[in-house]
C-alpha cells in the first residue's frame, strides 16, 4: 500500500555531495521537492526502509527525518508544480 512521507535532511560535512541523497530519494515512485532539504514522496516502503536507504549515502553526523504525511495539509509559496503534485497525491 502506497503512503506519503516527508523527508527532511541536513548534511553537516562541508562540501558534501547532495546528489547521492537526491538520487536515493528520487528512486521512489513519486516525489516532489518542497524546498531546501525537504522532499515529499510516495512509497510502498516503510519509513524505516526509506530512512535506511538514505542513511547508506549519509555520514554519521548528518541528520534525517522520515514521517508520514496525510491530508489535510497546508502550504505556501511552493509553486504551481509542487502545489499541483500535492493536490493530486495527498489523500
Describe this structure in words.
By secondary structure, the chain is an alpha+beta fold. It has one domain (3-89): Alpha-Beta Plaits (2-Layer Sandwich), CATH 3.30.70.240. It is built from three helices and four strands. The protein has a four-stranded antiparallel sheet with strand order 2-3-1-4, with helices on both faces. Strand 2 (30-35) and strand 3 (38-43) form a beta hairpin. The longest helix has 11 residues, at 79-89. It is globular, with a radius of gyration of 13 Å. The model has no long low-confidence stretch (mean pLDDT 94).
Radius of gyration over C-alpha positions, nearest whole angstrom: 13 Å
In the residues, how many domains can be counted? 1
Chain-averaged pLDDT: 94
Give the overall silhouette.
Answer: globular
Number of helices: 3
Largest sheet: 4 strands, antiparallel
Order of helices and strands: EHEEHEH
Order the strands across the largest sheet as they lie in space. Answer: 2-3-1-4
Summarize the structure.
This protein is α+β, with helices and mostly antiparallel strands and 91 residues long. The chain has three helices and four strands.
What are the main properties of this structure?
3 helices; alpha+beta; 91 residues; 4 strands; single chain; Alpha-Beta Plaits
Helix and strand topology:
Layout: E1 3-10, H1 19-25, E2 30-35, E3 38-43, H2 47-55, E4 63-68, H3 79-89
Antiparallel strand pairs: 1-3, 1-4, 2-3
